[in-house]
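Hey team,

Filing this mostly as a record. A colleague (T.K.) asked me to run one chain through the structure pipeline before their review meeting, and I want the input and output archived in the tracker in case anyone asks later how it was produced. No errors, nothing strange. Just documentation.

Input sequence:
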Amino acid sequence: MQQYLTEPGFEDDFLAFLDASPTPFHAVASIRRRLDAAGFRPLAEGEAWSLRPRDRCYVIRNQGSIIAFRTGDDPGAGLRMVGAHTDSPCLKVKPQPAIRGQGCLRLGVEVYGGALLNPWFDRDLSLAGRVHYRDGEGELRHALIDFRRPLATIPSLAIHLDREANQNRAVNAQKDIPPLLATLASDSEPDFADLLARRIVEEDPAARVEEVLDHELLFHDSQPAARIGLDGDFIAGARLDNLLSCWCGLQALLHSDESVPALLVCNDHEEVGSASSSGAAGPFLRSVLERLAPTPEAWARLIDRSMMISADNAHAVHPNFPDRHDDNHGPRLGGGPVIKVNANQRYASTSATQALFRHLCRQQDVPVQVFVTRTDMACGSTIGPITAAGLGVRTLDVGVPQLAMHSIRELCHAEDPRRLAEVLAAFQSLPALPALD
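Output structure:
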């Protein structure tokens, strides 16, 4: 089952997945296509479920979150779960975005999540997301759109007009970053709603758009993901945090032992706190698990026999800033997956779950690293503690080491995603968890 994980096409397929997934909605659609091709069937939350041994199913909520699972031979044996998130920091278009002035049309944006803003300047930006509209028959419709070409940019202020730019460049998110979309001529002013309607029809010629009603649109870098470096050592691309983990979790689910019950959950809204109906702090995962274990007795047994690996990228040591890491806990690019540990439960790893992951890495001949933030620095968090607290399930936080986290373009080593996928596949092939406590 794991042969694909060692074949040359793994990295190329990952790059294609990144480019096809500019928003959480597109990421879920990309995952869904691969699940459909592998024989998984969709389930609707509002309908009755009839599950069989070795069933393979998936559930989507709000188009940006997805749970895929297989029942294996005996769901009561517990689930080998992998969790990740589909969203990334970016610029989100405001509901009434048009800003006109100085002969130009710009679009007002909100900053979604903890984005590094300076790297967004002077990039060729495109636009993607979902649009809701009324069709020619008066019916409410929606469509995913992606312009797939450079559409806008955020020009930097010339250094001649900002002599302190290289010493102290602060970014005002309200006035400095609205992307420039077009110039305005007196006889031809572009209408944003018309632009969206035309794009819907370009992607689906059968669509009849009477009126655009609303949208959730995100700017993204139009430059494709790529292998870079003198010997192709690195993968550079947008949204590595955390589509990389979604990809690795998907490959593990598709290429592990089908007799073992396993689950992949990819939640939206992690970058803004996970508190939504489809986020990790919401009821989505619990509602699915309760249908696999519908009685209190079955639920208690399922949780006791299950484990969650929360996969979210880790901070690699930056060669220009090595002092930002603890000397003994600085993961390196190409050094393999990283166990993430925090004494204050910002990560959910325990010595027991860490030991199991190290054991699996040894079996797969995969190097493993550990990250602990400097004691004098604040620590980020993941869906791991949220899931552990909400379900009571054993949990581990891991991730691939990367640089430029939360930038518009991020960097990891080309070998590390494959290594994480191999260990996750080994985890999802465990017929039973060893005695961990």
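Quick notes for T.K.: The chain has a mean pLDDT of 94. The CA atoms of residues 362 and 368 lie 9 Å apart.
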